[in-house]
Amino acid sequence: QSMDSALHYIHNDSDLSTNSSFSPEEEKKSKVQDVVPQALLDQYLSMTDPSRAQTVDTEIAKHCAYSLPGVALTLGRQNWHCLKDTYETLASDMQWKVRRTLAFSIHELAVILGDQLTAGDLVPVFNGFLKDLDEVRIGVLKHLHDFLKLLHVDKRREYLYQLQEFLVTDNSRNWRFRAELAEQLILLLDLYSARDIYDYLRPIAFSLCTDKVSSVRWISYKLVSEMVRKLYMASTPTFVVDLMNELVEKFCRCHKWSGRQTFVFICQTISEDDCLPMDQFA
């Protein structure tokens, strides 16, 4: 029945134009392409019309968001201008489920669009998602490395200042958020210089090592050991020496037994994963 009513609505919908500051001719021209039948694309773009949600399906905007990367891939980056307005409309949708759907796929869309369009059209949306509800932010966080590796080095460095914000969540009991952050930081080590790792990622890693939840701590031990490996291989030896000295000072000589236990676990991970030559370890 719902499908019949949807088809009935589609066949009787004669006015597919959307409100815009463009004249109707300019609006129509900006949406024209030759990859798929134009009427099909027009129907897809009209899914963001609020009246559709009332008459066809309350979740039609979410379906539209879910399909958008596939539509973008089909049309190709040369026809992104057809989808850009729809994407921005969905990214600011009142329903968090719609924004969450886009947050989980923005890294895929970045691959389809390439670095220039990503920097111009996706980065502002990405920045908005970083400040959104946790349900939306987790979509960005789960694919943080996948998205940041597509950006130019200078643009990528700007996000170093924002990584600390992922430690703060709407609900402090949401430990999976922090566990995911630790997982992503392990991957991000390959994208940043030794100095950036020491200055920005190290404090976050140490904070995660003292988390109240053991699952977060275990991933963090792996993060610190990989940090040791990365800094040891860097051309400047002072970073790894300073890091190891801090591990001794902060955890080995900690007045709490839990801190000293953390030191033992980090040492275990470093030795098991061969992050340091044994003479250096000793």
Helical residue percent? 55-70%
For the record, what is the CATH homologous superfamily label of the largest domain? Leucine-rich Repeat Variant
Instruction: List the helices and strands in order.
Output: HHHHHHHHHHHHHHHH
- How many structurally independent domains? 2
Beta-strand residue fraction = under 5%
Structural class: mainly alpha
Q: What is the class of the largest domain in the CATH system?
A: Mainly Alpha
The beta-strand count equals 0
- Residue runs with pLDDT of under 50 for 5 or more positions: 5-20
Corresponding CATH architecture of the largest domain: Alpha Horseshoe
What oligomeric state is this? single chain
Number of helices: 16
Q: For the record, give the distance between the C-alpha atoms at the N and C termini, rounded to a whole number.
A: 73 Å
What radius of gyration results from the CA coordinates?
A: 24 Å
Mean pLDDT: 88
Characterize the largest beta sheet: strand count, sense, and whether it forms a barrel.
none
Instruction: Tell me the CATH topology of the largest domain.
Output: Leucine-rich Repeat Variant
Query: Which shape, going by the Cα principal axes?
Result: elongated
Q: How does this structure look, described?
A:
It comes from Gymnorhina tibicen. GO terms for molecular function: protein phosphatase regulator activity. This is PP4R1 phosphatase. The protein folds into two domains: 24-151, Leucine-rich Repeat Variant (Alpha Horseshoe), CATH 1.25.10.10; 165-281. With 282 residues, the chain is mainly α. The protein starts with a helix and ends with a helix. Helix 6 crosses helix 7 (96-130) and helix 13 packs across helix 15 (257-272). 69% of the residues lie in helices and 0% in strands. Mean pLDDT is 88; it is low at 5-20.
